Amino acid sequence: MEILNEMEESVSPDPGFLTKTEPVAIKRRIARHLGHLDALESEAIHIMREVAAECANPALLFSGGKDSIVLLRLAEKAFRPGRFPFPLLHIDTGHNFPEVIEFRDRRVKQLGERLIVRSMEDSIRQGRVVLRSENQSRNPFQSVTLLDAIAEFRFDACIGGARRDEEKARAKERIFSFRDEFGQWDPKNQRPELWDIYNTRVHPGENIRVFPISNWTELDVWEYIAREELEVPHIYFAHTRDVIRRGTGLLPLSHLVQPLEGEKVENLMVRFRTVGDMSCTCPVESSAVSVVEIIAETAITRITERGATRMDDQTSDASMERRKKEGYF
Amino acid sequence: MSAIDSISFDHTELLRFITAGSVDDGKSTLIGRLLHDSKSIFEDQLSAITHTSRRRGMESVDLSLLTDGLQAEREQGITIDVAYRYFATPKRKFIIADTPGHEQYTRNMVTGASTANLAIILIDARKGLLTQSRRHAYLASLVGIPHLVVAVNKMDLVSYSRDVFERICKDFSTFAKGLKLNNIAYIPMSALNGDMVVERGDKLDWYEGMTLMDLLESVPIDHDINLEDFRFPVQWVCRPQTEELPDFRGYMGRIESGFISVGDAVKILPSGLTSRIKEIVTYDGVVDDAVAPQSVTLTIEDHVDISRGDMLVKPVEVPVVANEFDAMLCWLSEQSLDPRRKYLIKHTTRTVKALVSRIDYRVDINTLNHEAADTLKMNDIGRVSLKVHQPLAWDPYQRNHATGSFIVIDEVNNNTVAAGMICPVKD
Fold this sequence. Notes:
Helix content of chain B: 10-25%
Largest sheet of chain A: 6 strands, mixed
Oligomer: heterodimer
């Protein structure tokens, strides 16, 4: 906590800014000023409480990834000592890392909250999702299962962990992002979002996606994980793994990803920056085995999170925009 | 690990700013320059725009491409709406609300400005103070942005002339006298060449003030929040009703302004009942006091009926409680204001039905003249009188942004149709 000298005069940057000299009593209070993580945390708590109070039937999307881990802590901060006023929802691609699913279930049990899992396998079995091949990335098709779950439970709001620093289309998305009855996002027709007054009103059948950590960066997320001492699945930390070099990235060897002709399997020290679909989530070479070391790496990293780790986003510059329009998270 | 030593987690302040200006003023280039020179551009982003610049036949990397947005925008060569961008230096973390120009300007700038600590108004040194610069300055004063930077850009195209810069500063400050704008800084720069953005360059030796980045890193923002008047709109009432906590009744919300301590007397509005703060509860334990903008849970000594939409204040510093007030409205919707219709107003955590009982005037934002009006169209700004069906606890916007602002919602299509700022009571 910064202590301001009572006798200190405020320094006015030159030229032009005039700073009032405030009475000592007010200065003392100002000296308690909050850091950026406190400001972001308070904003996110405020957003979650607005959803709880104004939406009839919300859900919180929890995948076991770091962003949704942060969301859970924020929900605890927003609603304890009460229970969460919404269930947790996981859209299971069936291509998850087993460690992440194990972590997901353990965390939910600790919290004592309700988890709903809806699986893409079911959507595939019902013929709602048709894949070209079994090993194909399932990320683009999560929308179908998500929209089905929204319809099944009549959710009018889904709280998600998307951040605006992730991607160009996200940078233009509102915190309360309105979707029509087909789950579609229309970037040209968004509700203006002023101050911290959120318009949560929807007609039956429509819903909103709410992103309480819109204003957080990847670094903020890791700093918060460190500050709150949050547990994350251990594949976020550096470990040795069999990987295949493909394009500009590394792909983890698994039953879904096997070397093509001319590719060889290497055993490298890697960590994951995101934990999505196993068939397209790329690890990065790293020696960071603790949160603090991840923060150090993130602070000096030179490649965006999605650029480094998502094969499917590289397909086209506009792929996220297109997926969002189709109802993606 | 030396990298860790340079990271300070918690004590970095957050500064939100908006950039006002059209593409022609070099706004995208300026943002690109800030990101580039502060080493906030990632390699993959840089290689993507380098590739695009080359494909378009440019010699150097066009930094304005960094803020190039969606497919829909690229196809039509337009910019949609507000985009948010993030960068950090060891001193501060920054959020830029990047708002496009063009005819939608008022709507976009008001939206971006509503959360900003600072606005950068870009002026093309060759063109001087234009109508749009006046418009930007007026909007900044209307929304009450605490700090203003007038960035006189493209100094390279006027031979870095001190006379040109000083003339523009003089013109702007003459105009600004009529507005409530106190904290104005003037910086000559060339975003294209990087002079006075992050680096000083060697062409503007006659200018002794700060670079834009120095200023962004040091402008004092502690004063931007009202710390005088305690305002706590109740968002959610927490009643666990568990075996351990059968009678717990916590009022959850965010302290929008001011400061509260355990034992303080509080008044509940609009009922006017009073009580005392028993506990300030947070997930990390109970605390003795809390300050804006913290989100906390409050319990009080007495059993008083309190629900969402009520506001806790200190009895010595009360807001106005009334169901009629005047406000400046910025109309945001393609459907014009219809004074015969009822609208919804969302003010803090309370939503009420409202009627526009009179339109005092519309502001011509180019001349600042007041003109008679019987409606407000998209991008219009006007002063109106409003009646609401339940009393609201409010402060004038210029005293307290959180309790002086509201949005207007069209009940039929649920769209946000206007932004409102409550005026002080007339003498």
